[in-house]
Amino acid sequence: MTRVVGIVAAAALASLGTLHVYWASGGRWMAEVATPKRGGQPLFVPGRAATLVVALLLCAALVLLGRMGLWGSWLPR
Asked: Could you count the other beta carbons within 10 Å of the beta carbon of residue 65?
């Protein structure tokens, strides 16, 4: 069961990281609903650099898979 939860968590992290890479490269899909608004105006406009920092969730997914022994067997534990 732990392995399934880990794989689902890694998939969620990878999906969110990939979505942020997409947004940083200029994609607009789902960007409207991801930014909080007040009175119809966005509270902030995230920049490309900040979006790419959040895209590091891809690295978190790889670390999680590595800790479970599913990726990077050549890496030290």
From this structure: 19
Give residue limits of the domains in the chain.
2-67
Work out the average pLDDT over 20-33: 93
Q: What are the residues whose beta carbons fall under 8 Å from the beta carbon of 21, sequence distance 6 or more?
A: 52, 55, 58
Q: 16-35 burial, b for 16+ CB within 10 Å, e for fewer? A: ebebbebbbeeeeeeeeeee
Contact by Cβ (8 Å): 14, 69: no
Q: What are the pLDDT digits (tens) for 35-56?
A: 999 999 999 999 999 999 999 9
DSSP letters spanning 2-21: HHHHHHHHHHHHHHHHHHHH
Please calculate the CA angle 20-49-60 and round it to the nearest 5 degrees: 50
In this prediction, residue 49 carries a pLDDT of 95
